[in-house]
Amino acid sequence: MRTSWRIFRIFGIEIRIDSSWIFIFGLITWALAGHYFPSQYPRWPHWQYWLVGTATSLLLFSSVLAHELTHSLVARSKGEEVRSITLFLFGGVAEIAEEPKTPAKEFSIALVGPISSLIIAGIFFVLWYGIRGISEPIAALARYLSIINLFLALFNMVPGFPLDGGRVLRAIAWKLTGDMRRATRIASVSGQVVAFLLIFFGVWQILSGFFFNGLWIALIGWFIHSAAVRGYRQVLVKEMLKDVRAKDLMDTTFDTIDGSLSVQELMEEYILKKKERAFLVTEAGKLAGIVCLEDVKAVPSEKRTVTTVREIMTPRDKLEAVSPEEDGSKVLGKLASGKIHQVPVIEGGEVKGVVCRADILDFLHLRSELGV
Ligand SMILES: [Zn+2]
At residue 194, does pLDDT exceed 70? Predict the structure, then answer.
């Protein structure tokens, strides 16, 4: 599982940094302080390269954060729920709970990102213009940030999903065709084309001797490609789950087991004998959590005799209950966002069933096999 840390909260949105961000932050600071500034301004003292380099790097990531924050705030003003913003290897990502419901919403949520980068570029340009005769280090910082934010605005407007330009393209195609799925397909294919061009360009750079530049561009291409494919798949899945309710997905044959049972016992006595895969776990007669086949599978076989069910279950306070009438795609969303394997289906304070991730996957698999 990936590690990320919560650093602060702003406008009620959680700001997190992923562990991969530390790497890119270090790399950019090093590239600025060790190479870019010394080549542009050869007369600075050594410490000044590092001071300006670190400050520029921090402001660069603040710019990325501001870009994501405007997406989030516009999304929230349109009634979408925004959970968090995470800074990671390739920039930032705002976690908006659901896909926008209309093309107009999608259009404005996407477009505001590049516009904010453009405004930030303008602010740094004005700063550079005003201070260039007064302080060379601050002017250098402002000049770099102005250029990089302009580049971010332009790059994000490339019309390939999942870039902002791809989302704008999807919104336009969605408006014209009235078909969200077709529009996503168009934006996804164009995202994949953009990704392949980046990968080819990256490989060409590597072969021309610009190893790190080339590798970096190719990696971004690969990231865009996988996000473009995933974006379309998510829409398909959502469409397949459109008229499905939690009660259609839930497993109603579940046993109640004790938390002190070992994983080995659970496998032998319950899973293999009774062919069930979701269990309510009780401690002193009270519901303590739920354990699913997926939790068991995650335990290495040599540890199964010494691990108890209590250690691997999703505890009660982490469970997100749903009602039997809840939308299938919402149930899947809960499973995905909470990084949990199961949700209890509760009606009138009573557990009616359990939906495991595998239940949804089975359901989707069956539907696609039958061509429904
Ligand atoms: Zn954006």
Answer: yes
Q: What is the pLDDT of residues 16-75, one digit of tens each?
A: 888 888 888 898 899 888 888 888 888 888 898 999 999 999 999 899 989 989 988 998
Catalytic residue list contains 265: no
From the list 14, 68, 302, 350, the catalytic residue is: 68
User: How far does residue 178's CA lie from ligand 1's centre (Å)?
Assistant: 24
Third-level CATH fold of 246-369: CBS-domain (3.10.580)
138 CA → ligand 1 middle, Å? 27
Q: Is 0.85 surpassed by the pTM of this model?
A: no
Distance CA 238, CA 250 (A): 17
Give residue 109 CA to ligand 1 midpoint distance, Å: 9
How far, in Å, from the CA of 66 to the mean position of ligand 1? 10
Q: Indicate the domain borders of the chain.
A: 4-240, 246-369
Each residue of 148-185: pLDDT tens digit?
999 889 888 888 888 888 889 989 988 999 888 888 88
